């Protein structure tokens, strides 16, 4: 892509993202190898690298520069992802039972008889309200539950339960943010589906009081917000219905 075309695309992209309340600091170059990105309103992404063939990110999620999304299909709403986070790292990208752990045996540009591995995709998935600390590595095929917290520099090699606080290499459960009965009520409330204005009326520093108010009041309309789809190769922007 030449400089002029890239500048024109980024101008259109910036306009569409701004109208949607979103930001993609790296512009179209953030999307690698034909990636497709679907954003709900309010998503802010720094200079990240997105390799996932299809990735949906929920409303008001923040991604700091320096992240790599290798194979992840979904990141929920109200997530906070620090710099240096890698999600969806393949487990077999460097085979230890071959002659070499290097990738040249699978590269047809380097050898005449490459060994092509036909492995199915195993995208990871991140729930809502997940906080991922700096320099975390999450392997492919995993689910990080809603409300989870992952400590900085952790290696996540298995699923993380909802509202668990994990840390270490490999990561292990340190504790849970709330007692089991409160976790169940939080998950059942699906509070992340409420409009931001409605959430602002809740006592957010007191989860029990929040739940009591939500359970006491009549259910509010939740609907699906409009989404913006950004594609590369071919380049395109499409507004998807709510």
UniProtKB/TrEMBL annotation:
Q: In terms of domain of life, where is this protein from?
A: Bacteria
Q: Known EC number(s)? A: 2.3.1.28
Could you state a single Gene Ontology molecular function term? chloramphenicol O-acetyltransferase activity
Residues covered by region (Disordered): 217-242
One biological-process term from Gene Ontology? response to antibiotic
Q: Which InterPro entries match?
A: Hexapep (IPR001451), Hexapep_transf_CS (IPR018357), Trans_hexapeptide_repeat (IPR050179), Trimer_LpxA-like_sf (IPR011004)
Membrane-crossing residue ranges in chain numbering? none
> Which CDD domains does this one have?
LbH_XAT
Catalytic activity reads: chloramphenicol + acetyl-CoA = chloramphenicol 3-acetate + CoA
A cellular component term from Gene Ontology for this protein is: membrane
Keyword terms: Acyltransferase, Antibiotic resistance, Lipid A biosynthesis, Lipid biosynthesis, Lipid metabolism, Repeat, Transferase
Describe the family membership recorded for this protein in Swiss-Prot or TrEMBL: Belongs to the transferase hexapeptide repeat family.
Entry protein name = Chloramphenicol acetyltransferase
In which organism is this protein found?
Pseudomonas delhiensis
